[in-house]
Amino acid sequence: MQAEIAIRRAMLVFIIGVAGTLALGLVMLTGVAFGQVMEAEGFKLPEFYDPPHETQMKWLLEGAKARPLAEGQILIDSAKYQTFSTNGDLEMTAEAPQCVLRPLNSGQKTVSSAGPLQVRTADGKLYLEGKGFLLQTNSVLIISNNSRTVIRGAMTNLFIP
Amino acid sequence: MKKIWLVFLTFGAGCALDAQTNVSEPASAPQPPAVAAPAPANDTNAPPRDQPPTVITSQSSVFNWKSNVYVWEGNVHIDDPQMRLTCDCDVFTAELRQLADGKFNGATAERNVVIDFLDDKGQPGHATSDKAVYTYSITNSVTNKLVVLTGGNPTVTNAQGLLTGDPIILDCITGKVYSKNQETRILQTGTNAPDLFEDMSRRKTNSPGSAISAPSK
User: Fold this and answer.
1) How far does Cα B149 stand from its chain's mean position?
2) B chain contacts of residue A139, beta-carbon cutoff 8 Å
3) Which ipTM value was assigned to this complex?
């Protein structure tokens, strides 16, 4: 009788142990899968000029971390967007703690966020900031709230973000 | 986008304005001091980098560098201490067409426009209208910088008094203020105030037509 009880206890412990191990493994596997597949560090997305300046970078979007969202969108942390002239000179830098990159059917891309944005030209003459923005690469920047623009000195050269 | 700033800087050149509040500004918003002593910054030849910056605040802004149209909207406040100019309005639009001399020629302030300025003699002035259009042009080698005030019973006040009319034209080159109709009136006259107001009836005889027939709408 005591032997049967001991066997049953041993089986119960074994079953509980196996079930617990399987559950923990399942949780770990899920976490690993999401961690490995869904997030990347050191995100970089460049775009280059059309010929004859096809070797020159037009703009570069970087982020400390990035992970895909629905419909081809990408959530980017610590984002930095830089534009360059055809001779490679830095024109301006835009920075946001977080933003979403969204490809458009036209081939254009938008970068947007409900959070803050800071933009400054390389020569330091122009500074923009605000909260909530939509940047359509190479055409439009919309700042939705608390827009502040600071201009220092005379602006003599074309500025095209 | 740099083109915008040329417009702002030239917007104030010669018109020399200073601070004032916009009636539509929220009470909590920080406001610059009211029209006061002449700002000395414009009287120096200091290099541009040493001069105070122009600051534009608004609720929102749109920078379209394909169409060269730039818009600030909602409680817009432009403060240009270098040119001694402030402008409050609901919408400020800079539509930029580059001229041969590299300068740019258009800016419009709309709805509840309040402009405060110091003229080249340091006299404070105050202008209100529904719309203010700045144009820069060169005709026969003559540079024209005009601000045309229209709508909303435009007024310009300075040490001389009050000028009303629609439109009112501020000539940023000469510092003169004109009205296109006969409703011009000066309610008070300061003894030593500079003669900034010039009635159309006086101006008709000697003035070049271009100054009066400048773009007004």
Assistant:
1) 9
2) 64-66
3) 0.73
Core vs surface per residue A25-44: b (16+ CB within 10 A) or e: eeeeeeeeeeeeeeeeeebe
The answer to whether the CB atoms of B2 and A148 lie below 8 A apart is no
Q: Which residues on adjacent β-strands are paired with residue B179?
A: B168
Taking the Cβ of residue B51 and every Cβ of chain A, the question of whether any pair is shorter than 8 Å is answered with yes
Give the closest-approach CA distance of B82 to chain A in angstroms.
Answer: 9
Of the candidates B120, B115, B116, the one whose C-alpha atom is nearest the C-alpha of residue B36 is B116
- Rounded distance, CA B70 to CA B65, Å? 8
Residue B68 · residue B3 · CB < 8 Å: yes
Chain B nearest C-alpha distance from A63 (Å):
24
Nearest CA among B92, B206, B214 for reference residue B145: B214
Residue range B146-204, pLDDT digits in tens: 889 999 999 999 887 888 888 999 887 787 888 866 455 555 544 444 444 554 444 44
pLDDT in tens, A92-102: 999 999 999 99
Give CA–CA dist B57/B73, Å, rounded.
9
Note whether B115 and B86 are within 8 A (CB): yes
Region of A55 (left: φ > 0; alpha: ψ -120 to 50; beta: rest) is: alpha
**What is d(CA A49, CA A56) in angstroms, rounded to the nearest whole number?**
6
Strands (E), chain B: 54-58, 60-64, 69-80, 85-95, 106-118, 124-139, 142-150, 155-158, 161-164, 168-171, 177-179, 197-198
| DSSP per-residue string spanning B191-210 | SS----EE-HHHHHHHS-HH
Least Cα separation, residue A49 to chain B (angstroms): 16
Which residue shows structure tokens 């719309």? B131
Residues 6+ apart with CB under 8 A from A2: none
Q: Tell me the C-alpha distance between B147 and B139, whole Å.
A: 16
Tokens 């835009």 — which residue? A94
| Partner-chain residue, chosen from B51, B57, B66, that has the shortest CB–CB distance to A153 | B51
Please name the member of A140, A143, A157 whose beta carbon is closest to the beta carbon of B60.
Answer: A143
